[in-house]
Specification:
By secondary structure, this protein is mainly beta. The chain has one helix at residues 2-15; strands at 30-33, 49-52, 59-65, 68-73, 85-86, 94-96, 103-105, 111-113, 123-124, 126-129, 132-135. The N and C termini lie far apart (46 Å).
Length: 136
């Protein structure tokens, strides 16, 4: 029995039982047609942002340059059940958690302040093929 108390913490450490591990749940990506009226704010509009209905709690897509896009999961890395909100739905610079107050910048997903400062936002990969943006 004494050996169990030595082995159990080691197993927990190796299995990733640390609550600070930043394993944000992710969901299915998607594909959007940037020529569709509902996505016109994104198409080569640097700084344009939009939260789309995919991922775990939604995905914030941001145009960062000509034909360059980033996409971040909206689930808070600190509390996965909370959906974070952009500071401006059409030209966001920050994503903020209404529960824990964590804030993240939207160029790279870096934490700025709050309970989740040891975790970056989960970033989906993006690929542009003509006018179709794939998020995966």
């Amino acid at each position: 029995m004494r050996r169990l108390w030595v082995i159990l913490p080691l197993v927990c450490l190796l299995a990733g039982c640390n609550p600070e591990r930043c394993n944000t749940p992710i969901g299915q990506g998607g594909e959007i047609d940037l020529t569709a009226p509902e996505f016109s704010n994104l198409y080569n509009h640097v700084g344009g942002t939009l939260v789309i209905n995919c991922g775990y709690k939604g995905v914030l897509v941001r145009c960062v340059g000509f034909s360059e896009y980033v996409a971040f999961e909206c689930a808070c890395p600190h509390d996965h059940e909370v959906r974070m909100e952009p500071d401006d739905p059409r030209a966001a610079v920050l994503l903020t958690c209404p529960a824990c107050g964590s804030r993240f910048e939207l160029s790279y997903g870096n934490p700025l302040e709050g309970a989740a400062t040891s975790c970056m936002l989960y970033q989906y990969r993006t690929a542009l093929d003509g006018y179709r943006l794939s998020i995966f």
